[in-house]
Structures are given as C-alpha cells and as structure tokens.
Amino acid sequence: MRKLWKLAVPAAVVAVIVAGAWFGYGFFAQGETDYSFKTEKIVRDDLTSSISASGTVEPEELVNVGAQVTGKIMAFGKDAAGGTVDYGSRIKAGELLAQIDDVLYAAELRECKARKLQAEAEITSAKAAISQCEARLNLARINWERAQQLWKSTAVSKSNYDDAEAAFISAQADLAAARAKQEQTNAQLAIAEAALVKAQRNMDYCAITSPVDGIIIDRRVSIGQTVVSNMSASSIFLIAKDLKKMEVWVSVNEADIGSIKPGMPAEFTIDAFPGEVFEGTVKKIRLNATMSQNVVTYIVEVSTDNSDGRLIPYLTANVRFIRARRTDVPVVPNSALRFTPEEKYIMPEYRGRKFDRSRKVVWVAEGKLLRPVEVKTGLNAGVRVELVDSPLPPGTEVVYGIVETAAENPQDGGPAKSPFMPTPERKGVQGGGSAANRARAAQAQ
Fold first, then answer.
1. Gyration radius of the chain's alpha carbons
2. Could you give the angle at the alpha carbon of 418 between the alpha carbons of 417 and 424, nearest 5°?
3. How buried is residue 384: exposed, middle or buried, by Cβ count under 10 Å (0-12/13-18/19+)?
4. What pTM was computed for the model?
C-alpha cells in the first residue's frame, strides 16, 4: 500500500504540472492571433454567361479542283489581273487554271473520229447491200410464182421448178443477212460515237478550268509535274468561293454541346488583331463527334461576316458562345456566395440558423462579427453572379474570406508568447523582451 502511495504522489504532481502548462499556454495563446475580413463591394455592371472554346477560321465554301486525266502540267493560266495563276489569285468561272499535255489525247480523238467515219461508211454499204438483196428477192419471187403456174400445166421441168424455189428462199436469207449486217454497223457506229465523246471529253479535261468565281487558297502542283487522275492524288487547286463570308470551326467539349443551339450569338478574338472582338452566329452543329484521349468533342460552325476581307483562312480563334447577357445589374463575386464562416465569427443570434435552400447567403461584417443576408441569384457568369431583388444596395461590402494576423502583446507591443517558451536573445538585450530589460540594456551600453 505504501509503495502504491509513493508511486501515485509523483504521478499526480506530474499530471498537475502538465495540466497547468496546458491551460497556461491556452490562456496566453488567446492573444496570439487577430483577424480581418476580406471584402468586396456589390456593384452594378454588365454580365455575360458564355462557353469558351477554340477554333479555326475557314472559308464558307471550298472547291477542290482536281485532274480528270493523267499527264504533265505544261503551263498555268492567267488570273483576273492578268498574272499567272498562283496562291491568292482571283479567278472567274471558266478561266484556265492549268494546261495538261494533250498530244496523246489529241491523237486518240483523231482515231475515234476516223472510227466513226468508218462506221458510217459501213452503214452506207449495208444499206446498199439491203437494196440489192431486196431487188434479188423481188426477182426470185416473180420467178417462183411463174414456176408455180407453169408446174400446174406441166410446162416446166422439175429441176427448173426447184431452182426457182431455191432462188426465192436464198434471196430471202440474203435480205435478212443484209439487214443484220446493217444492225451490226449501227452498233459499231454507236460504239465509235461513244469513244469519240470520251476522247473529246479527255481532250477537254487537259485544260483545267475554274468551276466557280473565287480565290486560289492552295496550288499543289508545279509546271512539269505529272498529275494522276485518281481520288487520292488529283487535287491541284483549292479555291475559296467567297471570302466575304467566313466560318469558324470550333471544337466544343461534350459537356457544353447541349447548351449550344443554332442561331446562338458568338464572339471571338484573333491573335492577329489583339483587342478586337468579332461577332458571329452558330450555323450548324456537326454530329460526327471525335474522341481524343477519352475526350469527346463536336465541331460547331460559326458564320461571320468578312466584307472587309480582314479575316483570312486558318487563323486561330478564341470563341465565346453567349448563353445569356444582362446589362447594368447588381453583381456579387461568386466567392462570397461560396464562403461559409466558422461559428465563432458569426453574431450569436445567427449561430446555428437554418437557411432556405432555394436562396444563397452572403455575409456582411458588423464590427468583428458577421451577419448573414439571404439573397436570390440570377445569371451566373462564373466569377460573378447576378443578384435579383437584392436587399443589399450597390456599394455594400460582402465578405468572401478571413485573414488571420499576429496580435500585439499588450505589455511591450510585441506578439503574445507562452510563459513556457524561452525568450530569444535580441541584439543589445539579454534574457527577455520587456521594456525594463530593454532600458537596462540601453544604460549598460
């Protein structure tokens, strides 16, 4: 029992010391920090809710002009200004863009013309043969009819009778063969005419002309280069039909595409024209989405007027789709609506109060404590939010944060310290930071 008592007494003493140190530190630590409120005023301003994305300026209508025949580029045509067709050349519909070597195609055209003439001559010959066969058939019919009459009166021999019959049958067969020959020559003429049309078209394709009025965006061949007439290598010129109307092809994330509708206004900026805002309208939403790194995006076409010709193809555009816009309305920073203070900063009568979920709360400073004010919000523009029928007039400062600062010790103007922490030495002062210590140190010096 005595041993337990001897052990309990020192343990109790240690516990008392620790508890005293703890409460003493808590007492002196009360004055270690002070605080102030971060505020911002409610102001009247214009507010815009938008969706931001990036895109590329594109001509509204592009025409890809290719080669229909294979051959070597011999020369380029002339543009509207009289210069050689090149990048940026303005051209009219039907004007020559490039000339392909047409020697082989011209020879093929002459050969097809000759085949047509041959087929026409064969048709003429077939018609003459038909006329001859018809005459022979007519004669054979007369002889056959006479032989039949004479055979009844036994005035003709059996052999003559048979010869007349055979001649009539043979004349019928010859006429049928002549008519078949004519049909064959008609078919040959049709083949020759089709080959002639093809050869003439290939000959025409050697002269590559512009299908529309426009401007040359890209020239993809040079003189002396051989072009091939297939889908993968036939593109020679890229023509913009009208640069007065441009489009911005904007890549929009799938999370925002539901908020974008045709006819929605849009604004965009171009790095080439800093500080200038261009206006456009959503024209179309393409449904063929693309996926990159598990992110699905859609292409939205924004049409814009380019009558002044300042916008050129393939510029990068920073686009804002305007969802809604308010003019001269009271606005509050969104951070003030998200701010929720601790209970110790709230006025006692408002602590633990329940607020309407359909409304937001902002906090107004009343001295060193905060008072909540319920507000109704409207348009949310991200950083700032519209206040609807706000009980707080413009100019009211709302709190969006608290800044804690070190408090001054009331004895010597320095920060409050725990009595259990050692006091660091200062220059010219030994052992302590009180005013008396500083005075003694000054006298010693």
1. 51
2. 60
3. buried
4. 0.63
